[in-house]
Amino acid sequence: SAALPLLVYMHGYDITAMPKSAAWRRRYGKLWRDEVLVLTPSEFMRRKVIELGASLQQVVVQHNGIDLDTWSCSDPSSRHAGKVSFLFVGRLIEKKGPRELVKAFARLRQLAPELDADLTLCGSGSLEAALRRDIAGFGLKDVVHLRGAVSNAQVRQAMMQAHIMVQHSVETASGDMEGLPVSLTEAAASGLPIIATRHSGIPEIVVDGVNGFLVEEHDVEGM
Is the confidence at residue 2, as pLDDT, over 70? Predict the structure, then answer.
């Protein structure tokens, strides 16, 4: 029988970090020669795959979608009663920038000590212990909350209680990057304004000055 067509979904690490290995570059070369159809989660990642050698016509953007029926949109200002609640949802790993985020929140507390604000981080990962040290070192134990891994239902509830979504994604030393963070798409669907970095596909979700604000990677002061 005729061979079935092959479709490959390339997301983030496999586009930005794995090609640094000669072995993976050889493997990918076969995909390009065979004109295998490649899907990527953002236009940013599509361009990266083309730079690796794929042809223009074989790489197609397939954004990470969500089921809008499971998300309720609301105006965060309608539940504002003095406290400003910031929310992060994601793994506590380097490319998600949770340590930079906590530093930015600490700077906010210095700049506006009169502001009643808190920060909740939903997720687990290898940086949890370092984050706990950062939080203690900045004197933020009463206002920065690490909730650990949470369910999808708990994420939806957290987004309905928060006022602003925050994420400080960065490219790691190995070249690892985000694809298109689903949590930010969910936040946008929930009506949350988003403060994030100009990183990978994030500007395809967050339009600076429209549904949120963007800063450069590692620009803690700007955030």
Answer: no
